[in-house]
Amino acid sequence: MESNAKKEFFDKKSKLLKLEKKDIYNYLFYNGYYGERYTYPPIFNVLKYNENNLNSNTENIDHYDLLNIEVRHTETAKRIFSLIHPDIYCQIVDEIVNNWVKIINHIYNDNLKVYSYSFPITITNKNKIDFKKSKTMIYNFLTLEEKIAYDSYNYKYILITDISKFYHSIYTHSIAWALYGDREKAYENRKDKSALPNKLDMLFQKANHKQTNGIPIGPVVSDIIAEIVLAGVDKSFSENEEIKKMDFISIRYKDDYRFLVNTKEDAEYILEILERELQKYNLWVNKEKTNIYKMPAGLERKWKKEYNTNCVLSNKITMSKFQDAYNYLIEIEEKYPGTAMLSKFFDSLIDKKGNVIFSKFALMNKIKVINLLSLLVDYSPRILPQLLSIIELLILHDKSEEFNNFIKQFINKMYYHIIINKKVDIFRFIWVYYFAKKHNIILEINEELNIKKEELKKQKEGLEQTIKEFGKTIKEFENTIKELESKGELENKKEFENKKDELIELKEKLIEEKSKINGRRINSKRKRIRKNIKNRPIYTIYR
């Protein structure tokens, strides 16, 4: 009997092959450039592209640099997201779209025994790209865990493993290894610059300062390249003679593997073969995240059962129910840090119609909820944009002066705590600054810093004038000494010299004070942001 995993895998292949070229272009440009939702504020948009002029004259440019932003998932774990230069991004998209059938047939090879659920485009039942779900791929994975349970009744064990530092470990030459099928064939064809494998290799090197190690995290084209590389690993794994004979079901989400097997020995053998095939691509299994469980243990993430039991809220929410769910949420987060649970909780606070489920709370309770939610950002800074999107929806529904004054104070306090740190969290900074500018919230500390800057400027100008006058006085003093000395009227030269030294010392102190003023940095950390910020709520852009 065909497994549910296999059926869904090849159904997806069929739908992807039916997509029209213009729809693929539209998605990769308009939705794929900035990648995952809530990474960058929605102030920059791909407005248009010229399909007939995608390959701009970049041949004379040796390399480009990535634009990076550091995003913290916890206080200790971070991820670097990157933007690819538009010139190179356009060329990569062109190569992918023009070789779409070849790429899909490679990723969805008929002989695979590992079924990937992480291709970064979600298709509706009407064979159209689902723009909303394609931006929330992590939830597809959480759903995937439920789906694998449908096939689990025939098996007793589950092997769970993933790849260590996957995106940063992808070797650009391995794109060719995967598409050609092995290293030797890739090496033989390395001089064919017109071949897709070599073009993609060259473009990803060029995008990243000619580096061959690692591909940028974020853009959809990177996710497609990751699928190309791992499909090569999965194909080699599936073609192993012993693996062909074995009874198991395997699914993969990006670099995360799940295998349903009959015995612990089967799981150990599968892991051994998988490790061997990964190493051929300079990839390594993450030992810390590799486990074999006797089912039903391991079928779903440990936090999910506790979360679903204690933290799911309905639209008929009360303050006490929210408080209970919130307290359980913190307990679970401290028990299982760094999961997608907090993001899932924030999403659940907005219903399908785009309304915040606690928007009808009394003012003080509403303020209390916002303050409580803001404390969760310290557990996972990544959720800050979701908090701001909730606040924005509340602003649209509550026009009261008291609530709006609270929001102004809240944003100012948040901004203050960001910029007083020695190392400013740029991710938090750009989101809070964007929100303030969009909603015409005056950042008071910026105004104070401007005043302080003007005061320091005046102090500096005053000191410069004083130093100049001291210089004149010292010069006059020196001339007086020389004149008295030449006339033979200088009776106590030592006393005059001491006075002169005192003046020089005082001048040096003034110069030192001036240098201190020059060295003071006004830490306003301002960024210029385009004024044409869209009026659409953050939530509606990213939902």
TrEMBL record:
<dbReference type="InterPro" id="IPR000477">
    <property type="entry name" value="RT_dom"/>
</dbReference>
<feature type="coiled-coil region">
    <location>
        <begin position="439"/>
        <end position="520"/>
    </location>
</feature>
<feature type="domain" description="Reverse transcriptase">
    <location>
        <begin position="1"/>
        <end position="341"/>
    </location>
</feature>
<dbReference type="Pfam" id="PF00078">
    <property type="entry name" value="RVT_1"/>
</dbReference>
<dbReference type="InterPro" id="IPR051083">
    <property type="entry name" value="GrpII_Intron_Splice-Mob/Def"/>
</dbReference>
<comment type="similarity">
    <text>Belongs to the bacterial reverse transcriptase family.</text>
</comment>
<protein>
    <recommendedName>
        <fullName>Reverse transcriptase domain-containing protein</fullName>
    </recommendedName>
</protein>
<keyword id="KW-0175">Coiled coil</keyword>
